[in-house]
């Protein structure tokens, strides 16, 4: 199964955020687009934390330790602290950094369907607390409250039938005050 995903990487000590498009081309072989430059990468796990990485026919032994979205990467004796986020996690982080105030309308960041609603109108929620589950590409994605508040309105009725609860990118999901 060929998959293509986009990620955002922040490397400690570097100001620029790197947008990565990763497409699986074959078993363990990926095409990685970094800032418009495409690279072929063969990525294989050797043991719990050691990986063999061949990028554009150059070989690296890489040690990676993971803590959630944070990775410590050791390459050729150099250590890098890297944060890797998908679109949803990046959006939540940006919202938290801004310190949202007032009424917030939460919109879908991807097409899919609302499978489950975890909160109802009138419920109090904390920032980061899941409000609903959006299914996209057979994966369940938690849609979280961007701030502390009360759910004022929910725009989509959850359903196990995708035809009944389909949403597109930018569709309104719920309002929090």
TrEMBL record:
Keywords: Biotin. It holds the Pfam family Biotin_lipoyl. The keyword Amino-acid biosynthesis does not apply. It comes from the Bacteria. Residues 95-177 form the Lipoyl-binding domain. The keyword Phosphoprotein does not apply. Signal peptide: none annotated. This is Acetyl-CoA carboxylase biotin carboxyl carrier protein subunit. The lineage of its organism: Bacteria, Pseudomonadati, Deferribacterota, Deferribacteres, Deferribacterales.
């Amino acid at each position: 199964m060929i998959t293509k995903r986009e990620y955002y990487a922040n490397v400690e000590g570097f100001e620029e955020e790197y947008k990565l498009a990763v497409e699986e081309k074959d078993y363990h072989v990926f095409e990685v687009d970094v800032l418009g430059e495409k690279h072929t990468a063969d990525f294989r796990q050797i043991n719990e934390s050691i990986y063999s990485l061949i990028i554009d026919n150059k070989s690296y032994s890489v040690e990676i330790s993971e803590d959630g979205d944070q990775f410590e990467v050791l390459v050729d004796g150099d250590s890098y602290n890297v944060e890797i986020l998908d679109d949803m996690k990046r959006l939540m982080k940006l919202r938290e950094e801004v310190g949202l105030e007032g009424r917030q309308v939460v919109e879908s960041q991807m097409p899919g369907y609302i499978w489950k609603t975890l909160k109802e109108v009138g419920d109090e929620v904390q920032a980061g607390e899941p409000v609903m589950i959006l299914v996209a590409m057979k994966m369940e994605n938690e849609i979280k409250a961007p701030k502390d508040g009360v759910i004022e309105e929910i725009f989509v009725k959850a359903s196990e039938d995708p035809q009944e609860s389909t949403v597109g990118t930018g569709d309104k999901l719920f309002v929090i005050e």
